[in-house]
Design a protein that fits this description.
- The structure holds 2 protein chains of 2 kinds.
- By secondary structure, chain A is mainly β.
- Chain A contains no helices and 9 strands.
- In chain A, strands 1, 3, 4, 7, 8 and 9 form a 6-stranded mixed beta sheet that branches. Chain A has a 3-stranded antiparallel beta sheet with strand order 2-6-5, with no helix packed on it.
- In chain A, strand 5 and strand 6 form a beta hairpin.
- The model of chain A has no long low-confidence stretch (mean pLDDT 93).
- Chain B is 0% helix and 55% strand.
- Classes of the chains: A mainly beta, B mainly beta.
- Chains A and B meet through strand 3, strand 7 and strand 8 of A and strand 5 and strand 10 of B.
């Protein structure tokens, strides 16, 4: 098994860009997804397979991957974006196919 | 509309058992792999178990041998039998659907796209 490393917290002013990273070895060979979770609610998928968005998710949410790091980018941040964000990897070659990162708390100043 | 509704949570003593249920609606249940994911109080998300579309079951090391996933396609339901419960199993348990996408080279990748609201399990003496 492997570990996905996320920074614990990110602070961003409204209208600015939030960048949330997720790192592990060989992340380039894996499919990376991102979830948003607001207090008291179930997680919501915001980006899947690096940079695809489910219907209803604003274009302000995007993803990328380079080297050993995947990144979730939220542009023109709004107060409603304040939440915990989790990266997740699917590895079909593993008998533990799903791994979550530890989560990043995004605070909108 | 796609829905997942969990039930069966509650308070149980260490060493006890619970059976969680998740009823699905709004999609062709038998065509999808299903998962259980949990979240301990104040902690992050932890994958627990998957019942794949080809009938293979996967478990996190922390629950292997104590928790058992099953499904009944006729009832569009997935279950989690929880035995030998420990204090550290205390969490909200979410039922989650797998979906899949093909890349430009025809390789299939899975992602979790629909979550239930969760059911709470508390293990305490």
């Amino acid at each position: 098994s492997y570990v996905l490393t996320q920074s614990p917290s990110v602070s961003v002013a409204p209208g600015q860009t939030a960048t949330i990273t997720c790192g592990t070895n060989n992340i380039g060979t894996k499919s990376v997804h991102w979830f948003q979770q607001k207090p008291g609610q179930a997680p919501v998928l915001v980006v899947y397979h690096e940079n695809d968005r489910p219907s209803g998710i604003p274009e302000r949410f995007s993803g990328s991957k380079s080297g050993n790091t995947a990144t979730l980018i939220i542009t023109r941040v709004e107060a409603g974006d304040e939440a915990d964000y989790y990266c997740q990897v699917w590895d079909g070659t593993n008998d533990h196919p799903w791994v979550f990162g530890g989560g990043t708390k995004v605070t909108v100043l | 509309e796609v829905h997942l509704v969990e039930s069966g949570g509650g308070l149980v003593k260490p060493g006890g058992s619970l059976r969680l249920s998740c009823v699905a609606s709004g999609f062709t249940f038998r065509s999808y792999s299903m998962n259980w994911v949990r979240q301990a109080p104040g902690k992050g998300l932890e994958w627990v178990s998957t019942f794949s579309g080809n009938g293979i079951m996967y478990y996190a090391d922390s629950v292997k041998g104590r928790l058992t996933i099953s499904r009944d396609d006729a009832k569009t339901s997935v279950y989690l039998q929880m035995d030998s419960l420990r204090v550290e199993d205390t969490a909200i348990y979410y039922c989650v659907r797998d979906n899949s996408v093909y890349d430009s080279e025809g390789r299939r990748y899975y992602y979790m796209d629909v979550w239930g609201k969760g059911t709470t399990v508390a293990v305490s003496s």
